[in-house]
Every structure is written in C-alpha cells, then in structure tokens.
Specification:
Layout: E1 6-11, E2 15-17, H1 32-45, E3 51-56, E4 59-64, H2 66-77, E5 89-94, H3 101-111, H4 118-130, H5 136-143, H6 147-157, H7 161-168, H8 174-179, H9 186-196, H10 205-213, E6 217-218, H11 222-233, E7 238-239, E8 248-249, H12 252-274, E9 278-281, H13 287-290, E10 294-295, E11 299-300, H14 305-325, H15 332-353, E12 354-355, H16 358-363, E13 364-371, E14 374-382, H17 384-393, H18 415-435, H19 437-453, H20 483-493, H21 506-514, H22 518-532, H23 545-554, H24 566-570, H25 574-584, H26 588-594, H27 599-611, H28 619-627, H29 655-659
Parallel strand pairs: 2-4, 3-5, 9-13
Antiparallel strand pairs: 1-5, 3-4, 6-8, 7-8, 10-14, 11-12, 13-14
Length: 660
C-alpha cells in the first residue's frame, strides 16, 4: 500500500458521493448554513485541499471531502458565482480500486484536512484589497466572518516579503512576524528586521514592538489621537496603512514636542487657576526622579459668606441625593449617575473649605504628565532646591541668636569662618552623641514622637530628623471600613502622654519622656511611625526589601485590619462583582443567580457576605471570603513593572482555512 494517492483533475459534474463516506447519511452536514463560509472561501481562493476520490461506475466518488463537494455544487447552481460550471475541473487524488477504504479514510485525515497555512491566508486577504479592490466589509461578508478578524489578517499580509519568508522558513515565529505589522512601512519593517537580526540572536515579538516604537506613533494610539491634528497642521509625515487606524505618525520627535506643549499648556492653566508659582510637563511621570520633590497640601479654611452659602446648598442637595439613592427600584444607570453627582458635589465642597497657604503657593507648582490615555496633573510639588531654601530660611535671618547687635569695638568673625566653626562644632557634637548612645536614642525618639503627637512647630530644629503625619487623601474617607481606625484609636488611648504637657518647657517634657518605661516608649514610637508611613500598595521586594519583609512580618493578613464593604463594592462595575463572586470566591451559582439583578442588589449581597459569612458556605468558600482583598492590597504582592514584556498569544488558524 502506498502512502500517497495519484493527483488528477476531475470535472465537478463527474463527481458523486461515495457510499463509504460516513457523512453521506448526515444530511444536516450539507445544509446551506453549514457550508456558506466554505462556499465563499472556495469562490475566492479556490479548492485549497484536494478531494479524495475513487472510480465508481464511470464516475468519481468522493470518499473524503463531501462538504467541499456540496459547496462546489452550490457554486454551480449560483448564477452569481463566475467560473464554476459542471465542466470546471478541481484537484483530486485517486484512491486505487483495490485500496482498503478504511485505510484510505485514515490517510485522508492526514493529507487532506491540513489547515491552510496562516501566512497564505494573510496574503490572500491582502491581495483581495490591493488587486480586487475589496474592502474589509466585503471580505468579511464573503467569508462569513467579522470585520475585525479580516482587519487583523490584512495587516499581516502586508508585512515585508523578507520577514514573511523568514516566518515561512521558521527562522522567526509567527507571533514575531505579526509584531512587524505595528508599522505600515515595509521599509521601516525591513530596517528594523535587519538591525535586530545582525547578531543572529533569537528574535522576540516584544523586542520588535519596542524597536518600532521609536519609529513613530500609531494614529489610533492614545498619544497619536491626542496630537494628530496639530501634527498634521505642522506637516508631520504619516505612513499610511490600508486601514486608517494602523497608520503611523513617523516623526516621533515632533509627536513628543507637541505632546509636551499640550501638557505644558494644561499645567499652566492649572497653575493660573490654583495660584502656584510654576508649571512644568513631562511625558511620563518619573517617580524615581520625583522622589526628591516635596509636596504641599491644602489646609482647612473658613469659607467667606458666598462660599459658605454654596456649601450649605451642596449639603442640602447631598441629603436629597442620598435619599434618592436609597430607592430600591432605581436602575443601575440612574444609580451610577447619582453617585457621580455626589462625587462632584463633595469635591466642590472640599475645594470651598480648603486652600493652600500663601507660603506654599509661592514655592510649589504643577507638573502635567501623560498617563492612561489622558493628561494627569500632579499638584503642589516642591522642587528640591526650594525645599532646601525653606529649611535654610529658618536660620538665615539677620539676627540668628536673638541677642542685641554687637558694639563696633567687639570682634566680629567673617561669615566664611563662622560657617566653618559651625561645621567643626557639629562634628564635635556628633562625636559626643556617638559616645553617649542611650541619651542620644532617647533624644531621637523624643523628637520623632513629639513632632507627630504634639501640636505646633517642631520641638527643635537642631536635629534634622523631620517627622510629620502623612497626609492620606481619600475621596470618601467617611465611608471606609472602620476596623483600622478603631485599632489605631485604641492604640492612641493606650499611650502614656503624661509627658506631653504644653505648659512645660521642652526640656521638662524631655525629662518626663526619658523617665518612661521602655515599653511605653516603644508604644509611642510605634504610633508615631505608623502615622508617618506613606500610603502605597505592597512594597517592591527589590526596591524596598526592608519594608517588604517588615510588612510581611507584622501584617501577614490585611483582613485582620480591614474588611471590604458596600462603599468599596459600589465603586466596582457589576461585571467585576460577578467575576469576584463566581471565580475568586467560588460562588458560581450565586453569581449566575445575581446576574439578572441590579448592581445595587449585588452590592448589598456582597456587603452582607463579607460582614458575616453565610452559614451555608462551604469551608473553601468561607476561607476565600475571609482572605479576599484586591490583589494589589495583599501584603506579599509586588507592583507590576509596566516595561516587562507580555506573553505572546498565537492567533489560531481561521475557521475559513480549516473548512476549505
């Protein structure tokens, strides 16, 4: 028995069903809706896999390929299909008369059902647009597929021939080849391909995409859409794609220039509105660089008569809106609209009752950056040099000692010598402090604790350890879970604050502080440190290993200090809530049941579930509810690196290719 069958061409009119074809007894297989897309594919691309036939009573019986045979007969009957008649010949393979039919069918599965090569399909779609003048819409209709699927294939069919050839030869993967479609210019694709393959190293799709980013910005990219009008007005070059959304603004430098101008304008507008001293812009907010900057925040102010009148109006409207939101029959869209209105009013009321000090406005500014497809304003930043000036200003007055000006006959030291003597004295003091560690430890702890717990200015400027309560902004502070607030309040109530008597001089306070038991000092320091810790998600193990390990030690389970509540769930989309219930908590049946409920009902269900897990829960479900929190809040989590490559997903072979 041979492993292949002889090729031949047979007129469609000479083809008949083979009695051994198992599908011949399943007429639903050949119903029009089951072969429509197959018929369309054959009409455009021809018969991609030959039929397996056997000579039978002067005809050629189709042993494998009955659906393709049915599609061919429909094409003959369809007057609109040109080029298909009973005399049209198609490719077949002949099974000898003495061949075992079972063996033939087994072999047919291997030699006639192979799907169409993906690159062939991409190129065929591209030819249909370039040569036949078709559109993605007409191609989609022809093949019975979606416009989006056609657009995806069209892009890959227009990649530079050398790159497609490399994919055919499997020197690069199909995913890597697809990455070159990020830029419509075949010349740019070729240049990048040659540059990346010089060292004969393994080429990844991620590397290709990163290299192409420097060669322009797609018009459909959020930045491209943001600057395009100005870019075109300045005559910037555009690499046009067959599909508009894949065209590229080629002058990356001009794109960045325009983006920075628009960001700068947004920052300046905010500066003028708020009254800050300066404005600046950067494409991406560099958190490492900006760590050196300080920040100022607005403080409470007494609103004037006009502002107070508006605050009263807002308060009245908020009360009315809260009542409306309690309506059980309220639709999701209406509820969300009310919620957004409440947010806006609360923001307005806060702005009327808070303001920056004149001193802060004189040194702080605004930086605008591009984030998540929009302009983001970073308000109240203080440049490092301005922060230094502020600290220096405290000791730079004309009379630093408070004593009267010296007489003309007294010795006066030159300024340079005075500064040097200050340095020498500080060095001597440092040596003395190092030789008296217990007293120095007490002094350091006293300053840290009193700076946090006492009202007013720091107890001393001599020690440049500056502890301040961390400003923690929150859109709805009065709606957060109170567990942590109650725990902190209890810790505060347990503190021994007898030493913190405003009527005493700092030296007397310090003496009383030193007399405290070690355990009481530890409580004070713990409370002060907790109050100064910055707000953030889980620490990055590499960037802050100390706090990463420390947080895991003291807070292995955030749920011991925090519980999700209705306020949180209200800010989730309905689909998110159902996903959390079904996939993360194992409550699949409940998620299905609640899918037809309003978001308000789902929020209420979740609130009750987390407040007190239901008795009907399984042990696994109960454990999931007890442990759940948003992933970024988990103590052991690590922040995502936006620059890391994402896994490439291979595009599956199309239904059209498999069927033809």
């Amino acid at each position: 028995m041979t492993t292949s069958f002889a090729p031949l061409t047979v007129a469609i009119g000479d083809l008949v069903p083979h009695p051994a074809n198992v599908r011949s007894n399943s007429p639903e297989t050949y119903e029009s809706e089951n072969i429509t897309h197959l018929k369309a594919s054959i009409a455009v691309l021809g018969l991609l896999q030959p039929l397996l036939v056997q000579k039978l009573d002067g005809k050629y019986a189709v042993l494998a390929g009955g659906r393709r045979h049915a599609a061919l007969k429909e094409l003959i009957a369809d007057n609109a299909s040109k080029g298909f008649t009973a005399k049209t010949k198609v490719d077949c393979r002949l099974v000898p008369d003495d061949c075992d039919v079972t063996t033939a069918l087994s072999l047919a599965e291997n030699i006639t059902q192979a799907p169409m090569n993906a690159i062939d399909e991409f190129e065929a779609f591209a030819r249909m647009m370039e040569v036949d003048g078709q559109t993605p819409e007409t191609i989609a209709k022809t093949f019975g597929t979606t416009v989006a699927a056609v657009k995806g294939r069209l892009r890959y069919g227009l990649i530079h021939p050398e790159i497609r050839a490399a994919a055919r030869a499997k020197t690069i993967t199909l995913d890597t080849m697809k990455a070159f479609a990020e830029h419509p210019s075949q010349e740019v694709q070729r240049e990048v391909f040659e540059a990346l393959t010089k060292e004969d190293s393994y080429l990844q799709a991620y590397t290709v995409r990163q290299a192409l980013k420097s060669r322009g910005v797609q018009v459909s990219d959020d930045i491209g859409a943001f600057v395009r009008e100005d870019y075109e007005a300045r005559g910037g070059a555009i690499a046009a794609d067959l599909l508009e959304e894949h065209s590229v603004l080629e002058d990356a430098a001009l794109v960045e220039t325009i983006l920075l101008e628009k960001l700068g304008a947004a920052a300046e507008e905010a500066r003028i509105k708020l009254g800050f001293a300066w404005a600046d812009a950067m494409v991406r907010y560099d958190y490492a660089t900006m760590a050196e900057y300080g920040r100022v925040y607005p403080g409470p102010v007494e609103p004037d008569e006009t502002a107070q009148k508006r605050v009263d109006e807002i308060t009245a409207e908020l009360e009315k809106l809260q009542l409306e939101m309690e309506d059980e029959g309220l639709e999701d869209d209406a509820y969300n609209a009310l919620y957004e209105r409440v947010d806006a009013l609360e923001d307005e009321a806060r702005d009327l009752q808070e303001a920056y000090s004149a001193e802060d406005l004189a040194r702080a500014g605004v930086i605008a950056s591009w984030s998540n497809g929009q302009v983001t304003l970073h308000i109240g930043l203080v440049r490092p040099e301005d922060t230094v000036k502020e600290e220096g200003a405290r000791s730079s007055s004309t009379n630093t000692t408070g004593e009267e000006a010296p007489d003309a006959g007294e010795i006066t030291y030159p300024a340079s010598l005075a500064e040097d003597l200050k340095t020498e004295r500080a060095m001597a003091l440092g040596a003395a402090m190092a030789l008296h560690p217990e007293a120095t430890l007490d002094l350091t702890l006293f300053k840290l604790v009193s700076d946090v717990l006492a009202s007013g200015m720091s107890v001393t400027q001599a020690i440049k350890i500056d502890a301040r309560k961390e400003y923690r902004s929150h859109a709805k502070m009065d709606e957060i879970d109170e567990t942590s607030l109650e725990q902190v309040a209890a810790a505060h109530d347990a503190l021994d604050l007898s030493w913190l008597d405003d009527t005493r001089a700092p030296a007397d306070q310090f003496a009383a502080f030193r007399a405290l038991e070690a355990g009481e000092k530890a409580k004070l320091v713990a409370y002060a440190t907790a109050s100064t810790t910055q707000s953030c998600f889980a620490r990055d193990r590499q960037r802050d290993s100390l706090m990463h390990d420390f947080e895991i030690e003291i807070m292995p389970d955030i749920r011991a200090h925090w519980t999700p509540n209705a306020a949180l769930f209200n800010r989730f989309k309905k689909a998110w809530l159902l996903k959390i219930l079904g996939e993360e908590l194992g409550l699949a049946q409940e998620a299905v049941t609640l899918a037809s409920s309003s978001k308000k009902e789902i929020v209420a269900f979740c609130d009750k579930l987390f407040a007190e897990p239901f008795a009907t829960l399984t042990d696994a479900q109960r454990a999931a509810v007890a442990a759940w929190c948003p992933p970024m809040m988990q103590t052991a989590g690590v922040a995502c690196d936006e620059t890391a490559p994402t896994a490439e997903t291979a595009e599956p072979d199309s239904d059209v290719a498999q069927a033809a």
